[in-house]
Every structure is written in C-alpha cells, then in structure tokens.
Automatic annotation (TrEMBL):
<feature type="transmembrane region" description="Helical">
    <location>
        <begin position="107"/>
        <end position="127"/>
    </location>
</feature>
<feature type="transmembrane region" description="Helical">
    <location>
        <begin position="253"/>
        <end position="275"/>
    </location>
</feature>
<dbReference type="InterPro" id="IPR002293">
    <property type="entry name" value="AA/rel_permease1"/>
</dbReference>
<keyword id="KW-0812">Transmembrane</keyword>
<feature type="transmembrane region" description="Helical">
    <location>
        <begin position="354"/>
        <end position="374"/>
    </location>
</feature>
<feature type="transmembrane region" description="Helical">
    <location>
        <begin position="423"/>
        <end position="441"/>
    </location>
</feature>
<feature type="transmembrane region" description="Helical">
    <location>
        <begin position="32"/>
        <end position="53"/>
    </location>
</feature>
<feature type="transmembrane region" description="Helical">
    <location>
        <begin position="380"/>
        <end position="403"/>
    </location>
</feature>
<keyword id="KW-0472">Membrane</keyword>
<feature type="transmembrane region" description="Helical">
    <location>
        <begin position="172"/>
        <end position="193"/>
    </location>
</feature>
<feature type="transmembrane region" description="Helical">
    <location>
        <begin position="306"/>
        <end position="333"/>
    </location>
</feature>
<feature type="transmembrane region" description="Helical">
    <location>
        <begin position="453"/>
        <end position="472"/>
    </location>
</feature>
<feature type="transmembrane region" description="Helical">
    <location>
        <begin position="65"/>
        <end position="86"/>
    </location>
</feature>
<keyword id="KW-1133">Transmembrane helix</keyword>
<keyword id="KW-0813">Transport</keyword>
<feature type="transmembrane region" description="Helical">
    <location>
        <begin position="133"/>
        <end position="160"/>
    </location>
</feature>
<dbReference type="Pfam" id="PF13520">
    <property type="entry name" value="AA_permease_2"/>
</dbReference>
Length: 504
C-alpha cells in the first residue's frame, strides 16, 4: 500500500464529531499507545493461550498452532474494514454506532444486543479464569467458593480503577500491555531458546489425535484455539471520543493489536509446546492444566511465582479493558435512547468524565453470572463458547452492513481508507467471518443434544429475547439519532475537507 503525496486537510476532532451529530463530553486524554494497549489487553494472548492450550493440543495436536495464522489473517481483514468505518465514524460504542450508521436503527439494535451480552459474558469468563492465577499466587486452595470470591475481587478492583478516569484506565492498560508482552513474548522466547525439549518438526506431527479417521476433522475441531484469541481489537474504537485524532489513530491501533497479538500468541503457544517434557501426555488429555507444570520445571519456583504476578496483572488489565469497552457501548446505546433507563445509563461524571452508571452495569451483570457459575460450574464452558460466537456474529453484522453500503455507492471518507481495494477486502472479510461462525456454531459430537447444541441455544435465546423487546417496545422509534447515513456523511466530510488521503 502506498500513500499519495498530496497534502490534504482533515476535520478537527470536535468538528468531525459535530458532523456526526454529537458534542464533546469526554477528555481526549488517550494517546495512540494507550489506545493500542486497551485493545491488546482486551485481546490478551496470554489469557487466550493459557485458557485453551491443553484443549487445542488434545483435539488437534501440535499442528493446531496453525489456527493462529489462519484466524489472524482473517481478523486482520475484519480490522481493515472496521478501520475504514471508525475513521469516518470516530464515536463511542464501536459496533452499535457503526451498524446504525451503515444500515439502520433496528439492525443496529440487534447487533448491539448480541454484542453487549457477548462482552458481558466475556468479562465474566476472563475474571473466572483469572481467579485461578490469583489463587495460585497467594497459595489459596481452589474451591467453588474461593473461585467466586477471587472472581469478585478482580471485577470490583477493575471497576474502581475504571471509576478513576480515562488516564488511570490508560495507565493500567499500558501496565497490562507490558505484562502481556513479558508473559507471552519474553517467556515464549526463553522457552524456545533455552528450554526446548521437542524438535520444531513436532508442529507437523499430529501425534495420532485423528484416531482411525482423517486429520481434517481433528484440525477443524481445534479452531477455537485461534478463534478465541483474535477479538478485542474493536475495543480501540469503543472509546473513540476519549482519543486524540481518533480517525487517524484508531484504525492503526486496531491493526497493530492484531499483528502484535498474533506474534505474541505464536511465541507463547509454540514455546509451551517445545518446552513440554511430556507432550504426549498433554495430547492424550492426561494433563488438563499443563502450563503451570511446564513453568515450574523451566523457570523454577521463584520464576513461576514471578510469572503468576505477570499473569494476574494481565488478567486484571483485561477485565478493566473489557469493562471500559462494555460501558462505552452501553453509554452509546443509551445516549441514542435505545435502552430502558437510557437517561441514567448515559450520564457522565462531571469530574472524571466516565459513564459511571454504565460501568456499574458492566460490573454488576458479570457478578450475577459469576454467582450462577458458582451454583453450576459447568456453565463456564458454555458461556465462554457463547461469548466467542456472539462476538463474531456482531462483527459480521458490521462487515455485512459495510459491504451493502459499498454496493450502494459508499466510499469511506475518513483519513484511513483502502481505496479501490476496500470492496475486495470487505468481501473476503465477510467470507472469512461466515466460515468462522460455522466452526463456532457447529454442534458437538458427545451425543447429548443439549451439550452439543449449547452454543446455538445460547445465541438463540439472546436473539429471540432481543427481537421480542425490539418489536414489542420499539426502542428504534424512541430515538431520533441519525441512521443509515454513510453516503451522506461521506459527502459532507468531503465537502468540508476536499479529497482525503487514501491507501491504495
């Protein structure tokens, strides 16, 4: 891609927001690196690799690492589409306002409804997984009660930090970024260079996971190893009104999140595979939680304890970033009058300039879900699987809406643009997304209809309740905010700025 050299004018942040029908209510104190840190700690390769390492190897063997390449490439296409959209619409909320301005109110309501629940469930799942690290760090026995209490600690500490304001959130996200890089790249490189027990050829060895059948089934079954890793980059756009020059910076922050996240995940996943002293036991499913054992053997007791500190920091930062992104989405949704209690949810604190009430909701609902998991531990896997599918459904609703607008003649008018490649990238992103959704929604093979179809059942419940509220309460009629105006807004931006710089 090359930039044309002609100097162009662009809208100032306040004027750009005014064109979109809003006024500045937030402090634009978030830099490019802080915005990148927010997306990266939400994506959190440390969380993704740790959570699914054993499962991926047991299902797909060492070649399951190649899903990191496949999904990373697909999500990079999605991030390019999102980059063009957020560059024209640098407003709070991400998925919701993008879907609204690209298609319409009812379409956006459903996209946001699915996305809100997926985000809230993700907050719960990350806090639950993080509680195990917290328990190990302080030598607390892992029981359902201790897991619940430590999960609540992570949720409440993240809430208090978010209450402190955007600057605090940005600082914690940057600390989390450093912890993530140390925990995944630093440890991964150390394992690769100094603690390698397996040959590199092991990544082409299925180790018999396919049984008597073909390997393709096993490989596709391990897709979650990559699919769970590569979302969170969209959070960079959720806080657009708190970022300086968001139309320029957020698209690049999202792309960098994918690239650095992918490299980090490769070093981490690959390092653990190569350093595993008994890889066959992990592949056979005999070691359900192998990473602590690998770290204990390779780093020693002190090194393993240091890693736990890094891991807890990364999990806390991830929960904080998720809460921040979810609260901005709720705020954006409420600001347009699209939710019950919208006036309460859309309030911004005068001193710290954060949507405090939306933050409370983004913490309270995960607390309630954690209580349900305390009653039934088996729910954790189900809610995690739903979270991933829900995120991908919401993503593809935006990708589809963008492609529809392009076919109608939309040429994105933000300072970040793919030019003539836009429609090609958009179509490829949609094709990848449909493939990913198929893999996530495909029923299992345990023989239990409820267990095998729990992901689709969960999505069905969310969709049905959302549609019922939409057509009974008609929130779309209570909002006068602009919708379906992508072409008109692009023309207005061009009228004010002239031709914008493009990437072609």
């Amino acid at each position: 891609m090359s930039r044309n050299s002609e100097k162009q004018t662009v809208l100032e942040d306040g004027e750009h927001l005014s064109v979109l029908g809003y006024e500045d209510h937030f402090n634009r104190s978030m830099s490019f690196w802080a915005n990148f840190a927010l997306g990266f700690t939400y994506l959190s390769p440390l969380v993704g690799v740790y959570s699914l390492f054993a499962t991926a190897l047991a299902v797909g063997g060492p070649p399951s690492i190649f899903w990191i390449f496949i999904v990373g490439a697909g999500q990079l296409l999605v991030s390019l589409v999102f980059g063009e959209v957020v560059s024209q619409y640098p407003i709070h909320g991400g998925i919701y306002p993008w879907a609204r301005r690209l298609w319409g109110r009812r379409y956006a309501w459903m996209a946001a409804w699915v996305y809100i629940w997926a985000m809230i469930v993700t907050i719960t799942a990350v806090a639950e997984y993080g509680s195990g690290f917290l328990a190990s760090l302080f030598g607390i026995e892992v029981t359902p009660l201790s897991t619940l209490l430590l999960t609540l600690v992570l949720l409440l500490v993240a809430l208090l930090l978010n209450f402190s304001g955007t600057k605090t959130m940005a600082r914690v996200a940057q600390i989390g970024l450093a912890a993530e890089l140390l925990g995944v790249i630093g440890v991964g490189l150390y394992l690769l260079i100094f603690q390698r027990k397996q040959p590199f050829s092991v990544f082409f060895d299925t180790m018999g996971v396919q049984g008597d059948g073909g390997y393709a089934t096993a490989f596709f079954g391990a897709a979650l190893a990559g699919l769970f890793l590569f979302y969170g980059f969209e959070a960079c756009g959720d806080v657009a009104e708190e970022v300086e020059r968001p139309a320029h910076r957020i698209p690049r922050a999202m792309i960098l999140t994918i690239l650095v996240g992918g490299v980090s995940a490769l070093f981490s996943f690959g390092g653990y595979v190569l350093a595993a002293p008994d890889l066959s036991a992990i592949v056979a499913g005999k070691d359900a939680d192998p990473i602590p054992h690998i770290l204990e053997l390779t780093l020693g007791p002190i090194g393993a304890k240091v890693f736990l500190v890094v891991a807890v920091t990364a999990f806390l930062s991830c929960v904080l970033s998720l809460q921040a992104a979810a609260s901005r989405l709720l705020y954006s949704f409420a600001r347009d009058g699209m939710l019950p209690g919208h006036r309460w949810l859309s309030k911004v604190t005068p001193r710290t300039k954060v949507p405090a009430n939306a933050l409370v909701v983004a913490c309270t609902v995960p607390v309630l879900l954690a209580l349900l998991i305390f009653v039934n531990e088996d729910l954790l896997n189900s809610v995690t699987a739903f979270a991933v599918l829900g995120i991908y459904v919401a993503f593809q609703m935006v990708v589809l809406a963008a492609l529809r607008q392009r076919i109608k003649g939309w040429r994105p008018a933000g300072p970040f643009s793919l030019g003539r490649w836009g429609i090609v990238v958009n179509a490829l992103a949609l094709a990848y997304g449909l493939f990913a959704m198929y893999l996530l929604a495909k029923p299992g093979s345990s023989g239990n209809p409820f267990t095998d179809g729990i992901v689709l059942i969960g999505l069905g419940i969310v969709l049905v309740t959302g549609l019922l509220y939409l057509f009974l309460a008609r929130p779309d009629r209570k909002s006068t905010a602009a919708a379906g105006d992508a072409i008109a807004v692009a023309e207005e931006i061009r009228a004010r700025t002239g031709s914008v710089r493009t990437l072609s």
